[in-house]
Design a protein that fits this description.
heterodimer; A: 270 residues; alpha/beta; B: 734 residues; alpha+beta; seven-stranded mixed beta sheet; 22 helices; 21 strands; globular
């Protein structure tokens, strides 16, 4: 039901009256019952594609979560080790200890470059609440399998392109094989990334993905935004680079979706 | 054919009538309490009649007047319908007593100039008292009808033809209506939109094709809009017909809100919804009263139509309505005999036993007339049309109507005869102040004792019943602006009802610079001069001692009141410029700007119009004039960036103008702007409470300021927009 319809119905004060919103493309599912939010939420940002913005999303989502006063860390599981590039300019609060697993900034946003043992990282973080974004490799590999198995949530970025629907089907099949049965209930969420509404192909693929995964598509796509590239070039997150850009709002929306305020975590966000 | 008509009527009578829940409750109660109610009504009427005719001396009458005022003041403090009914009954009794006294004691026996002048004034007073009683009757218990749901099974929703007649309006105005009509929430296979172009314009045909709607035209323009609609009715077949004037843009929920009653009640011919206007009417705009004072049309759509609905007499207003095709067929299509085809069609349906409904949910919005001159032209047509119906199909005569319906229609039609009585009231003080004529054959103190309570009660009652939708004394301003113009055509139409012409109301025009339209204000200017002269003469009489002091006081007050109203009426003719050709609607939506270099900026819209938008960005962005941007507004789930240029920027505040929108982009913009189901539900927001005396002072003040403006503007060369005046495009009904 669109928000305009809800407001109309409130104004009508006609309890008997029912409305059929024929234009609401998303029926936010009432069936999706999420497990209560764990103390440390582990989100795997996974895709079988390169260039869909996994690393960028993982880094900037951690930054966005950090702005919400959550302790947030991004962990690089991809041998290309590109995550660190997003954090080059991040001032560390303490002299870096070579053995320290997570490199924290003053905003309690941290990152773990490739090569650390993910299990040990999670172990180290689980003493306090927060959220971890796993930047997984694109190839089907033991590391990916392990990440998908461990994660509480899987966030799949999809590029808005004509093959988007195919890509979604492929990863759905993979997840069905690899995810632990106990966690099947929390199925992957999708986000259309690098979206530019001016392109017809982008709009059409967004509609396709939406019809395919329904409510599991996060509310709005993440815009293709030059600010993300500039931020990477400067080695910092986009919130610092261009706080007024749309992509900051898009990322916040995803964080809202993943991290509902504690206390009503089990409730659906519809 | 006649047999078929009879059959239809029988079927309608046999059909189970599912009334409004409130009506059903009333029905149940009536069966048990019927006798008691009837008895108390009879007793009440008897009491009022006794009160009206009992003669008393002046002192007792003064005490009586004070008593009724006290009673009304005490009862009037309570809310609710019972208290309203009580104060209305008191008002009726007081008015009746005044009129009775007026008829029995103030009329001179023999013929004289005084008696003739007095008779004219008495006639005007009888008219206004009749209108007062009819208005009380109409709006004593407005029906708060609520929409009812449609069948859960989508396949049972009927087919609807949306007809959008146009004649000479610019395509830009029509486009929004068509695109929004297509976007209504109704199964696509059962929603057919038709553009009915009486102008036979190739650009309209091309647009209809592009927008995927039907295009209908005809070789002649016989019977204007009514003929256009009837022509389309022959070529379409949907079970229901929704009609929109080409500038009334529906929201997406229009059909679902309106259709429920039509499906529930087989005998219901039409459902009318309010005409809401997103631009200001000439009064609000030129006197700068919006949103504190309700707009001119709000009284009718806020109280009168719901009031008529109570008596099953709400009528079709030409647009924003859904009509059952069977009912239209039953009355031979849209009525073509008069120039107000809408009300006449409804009247014919009522005569045939069909019911009508009114839903006070604004589900479409249009443009008000842009100038006072255009407004006057529109009202001349309405007045002429109503007078025509009064002549050719008088609601008091003929078969098929209930008494209540006859009274309701009578009120609706007599309303347009207000011109001559208003003129009489506006010049009446002259008779005594200038010529020393006594048009009111009574002691001044007696006139006060009988007349003043009548005025106070009726003003207070009107404020109570109508105050939310029309402030006190504003009706006088409206009537004064129109009085001269409607007086002639209504009188003419009474004697020669077939001479009507249909003049199309011009909308979407633009005023470039402020000017004083002395042409349209001429009657009010003359009346103001007359009242000023009367005031001067009165002052002279006062100081030279050639008049009775109490008569002078009454007439001077009267002239001053007239001048206050007249000055406001003159001020309305000071046309203010309209800054933008297409109106910007205040609208807060999350929005995004995308720049050519791939960066974006997020923010919020402040106002949006067909041609551009104002935005507040989350953070300042360096911009240059005429920079190319794309604007996305997140209203519905799909995003559609609209190409635009920056035309103003100041830090985080940006104003953009759309450039070269394709038809899909335009459709998206129209949906964002006009299709939101809740777009107009706050239509009465911002009105202040009506306090009659404060309102009168406010009118006088605005009038004084307006006179100053009029003088200042006349000093420069006036620039009349509508040359040569009132009825710009005219076409003949053949």
């Amino acid at each position: 039901m669109g928000p305009d319809i809800s407001r109309l119905l409130r104004a009508l004060r006609a309890p008997e009256f029912k409305y059929r919103d024929l234009q609401a493309p998303i029926r936010r599912s009432r069936t999706r019952d999420r497990a209560p939010r764990p103390r440390l939420l582990i989100v795997a940002v996974s895709s079988l594609d390169r260039g869909v913005g996994r690393t960028t999303l993982a880094a900037n989502l951690a930054a966005a979560a950090g702005q919400r006063r959550e302790r947030a860390a991004a962990v690089d599981l991809d041998p290309r080790n590109e995550l660190r590039l997003h954090f080059r300019a991040q001032p560390a609060i303490a002299p870096q200890d070579a053995d320290e697993l997570v490199r924290w900034s003053e905003r309690s946003v941290g990152y773990v470059p490739f090569g650390r043992d993910p299990a040990a990282v999670i172990e180290a973080l689980s003493d306090r609440s927060g959220v971890v974004f796993l930047d997984t490799p694109a190839e089907a590999s033991p590391a990916l399998e392990q990440a998908l198995a461990e994660a509480d949530e899987v966030l799949v970025p999809v590029r808005a392109e004509s093959a988007a629907a195919e890509k979604v089907r492929a990863i759905e099949a993979l997840l069905a094989r690899w995810r632990r049965p106990a966690w099947r209930r929390t199925r992957a969420r999708y986000v259309v990334n690098l979206f530019d509404g001016r392109r017809r192909a982008d709009r059409e693929s967004l509609a396709q993905v939406r019809s395919l995964v329904g409510a599991r598509l996060v509310a709005q796509p993440v815009q293709q935004d030059e600010a993300l590239r500039v931020a990477l070039a400067h080695g910092r997150c986009v919130q610092d680079e261009a706080p007024g850009s749309q992509v900051v709002a898009d990322l916040e929306k995803i964080v809202d979706d993943l991290l509902p305020p504690r206390g009503r975590a089990a409730k659906d966000v519809s | 054919m006649a047999a078929r008509g009879e059959e239809l009527r029988d079927a309608r009578r046999a059909a189970t009538v599912i009334e409004h829940p409130a009506a059903r409750r009333r029905g149940a109660r009536a069966s048990t309490l019927g006798v008691a109610a009837l008895g108390s009504v009879a007793l009440g009427l008897l009491a009022i009649a006794l009160f009206v005719v009992t003669p008393v001396d002046l002192r007792t009458q003064l005490a009586l007047a004070a008593g009724t005022l006290l009673l009304a003041a005490v009862v009037g403090r309570r809310r609710g319908r019972a208290a309203t009914l009580a104060v209305v009954l008191v008002s009726i009794a007081v008015t009746g007593r005044y009129l009775y006294w007026r008829l029995t004691t103030t009329i001179g026996g023999e013929w004289s100039v005084d008696a003739v002048l007095g008779g004219i004034l008495l006639g005007a007073e009888i008219y206004s008292c009749t209108m007062l009683l009819l208005a009380y009757f109409q709006s004593i218990a407005p029906l708060r009808r609520r929409p009812v749901p449609l069948p859960a099974d989508l396949s049972r929703w009927p087919g609807v033809d949306v007809l959008i007649p146009t004649y000479n309006e610019p395509l830009a105005v029509v486009r929004a209506t068509v695109l929004a009509a297509v976007a209504m929430d109704w199964p696509k296979d059962r929603l057919r939109v038709y553009l009915l172009d009486d102008g036979r314009r190739e650009s309209f045909r091309a647009f209809a094709k592009e927008a995927g709607v039907g295009y209908l035209t005809r070789p002649d323009n016989a019977h204007a809009k009514a003929g256009n609609l009837n022509h389309a009715l022959e070529r379409t077949s949907g079970e229901f017909v929704a009609i929109f004037d080409c500038d009334h843009v529906p929201v997406r929920s229009f059909l679902q809100v309106a259709m429920g009653w039509l499906l529930r009640d087989e005998g219901l011919a039409l459902v009318q919804t309010p005409h809401h206007f997103y631009s200001h009417d000439p009064y609000s705009r030129n006197l700068s009263t919006s949103p504190r004072v309700p707009g001119e049309s709000e009284l009718f759509y806020g109280v009168i139509q719901p009031g008529l609905d109570t008596w099953n007499a709400s009528f079709f207003c030409g647009s924003c309505a859904v009509i059952r095709r069977a009912a239209l067929r039953d009355v031979g299509g849209i009525a073509v005999e008069t120039v107000t085809e809408d009300a006449h069609t409804a009247l014919k349906m009522h005569r045939r036993g069909w019911r009508t409904a009114y839903l006070r949910v604004p589900q479409a919005a249009g443009l008000e007339t842009e100038t006072l001159a255009a407004h006057v032209g529109q009202r001349i047509r309405w007045a002429r049309g109503m007078a025509q119906i009064f002549r050719v199909d008088n609601p008091l005569l003929g078969r098929g109507l209930s008494l209540a319906q006859r009274l309701c229609y009578l009120g609706a039609m007599l309303h347009f005869f207000a011109g001559i009585p208003r003129l009489v009231f506006l010049v009446a003080p002259v008779a005594y102040l200038v010529f020393g004529r006594h048009v009111f054959n009574a002691l001044p103190l007696a006139a006060i004792a009988y007349g003043l309570p009548h005025l106070i009660h009726s003003t207070a009652c009107n404020a109570r019943i109508h105050g939310r939708y029309r402030h006190s004394f504003w009706s006088e301003v409206y009537e004064t602006c129109l009085a001269w113009y409607v007086a002639v055509p209504t009188t003419l139409a009474l004697f020669a009802p077939r001479t009507g012409r249909f003049n199309v109301t011009a909308k979407g025009a633009r005023i470039d610079s402020p000017f004083f339209d002395a042409r349209v204000a001429r009657p009010t200017l003359v009346l103001a001069a007359v009242n000023l002269a009367a005031l001067g003469a009165g002052a002279w009489r006062l100081f030279s001692g050639t008049g009775e002091i109490d008569s002078l006081a009454i007439n001077l007050t009267w002239a001053l009141h007239n001048l206050a109203i007249l000055s406001a009426a003159i001020a309305v003719a000071c046309e203010r410029p309209q800054a933008r050709e297409s109106h910007r609607i205040p609208l807060r939506l999350p929005a995004m700007l995308r720049f050519a270099d791939g960066r974006t900026a997020r923010g919020e819209t402040i106002d949006v119009g067909r041609s551009g938008a104002g935005l507040a960005l989350a953070a300042p962005v360096p911009l240059s004039h005429r920079q190319r941007v794309w604007v996305s507004m997140f209203s519905f789930d799909d995003e559609r960036p609209l190409p635009a240029e920056v035309i103003e920027h100041d830090g985080a505040a940006v104003r953009v103008q759309f450039v070269a929108l394709g038809v899909e982009e335009e459709a998206h913009l129209v949906r964002v702007l006009f299709s939101r189901a809740d777009a107009w539900i706050g239509w009465t927001r911002g009105h202040i409470r009506d306090r009659p005396l404060a309102t009168l002072a406010d009118i006088a003040l605005r009038g004084a300021v307006g006179i100053g403006r009029a003088i200042a503007l006349s000093w420069r060369r006036p620039r009349p927009l509508l040359e040569p005046g009132l009825t710009r495009p005219v076409r003949r009904a053949s």
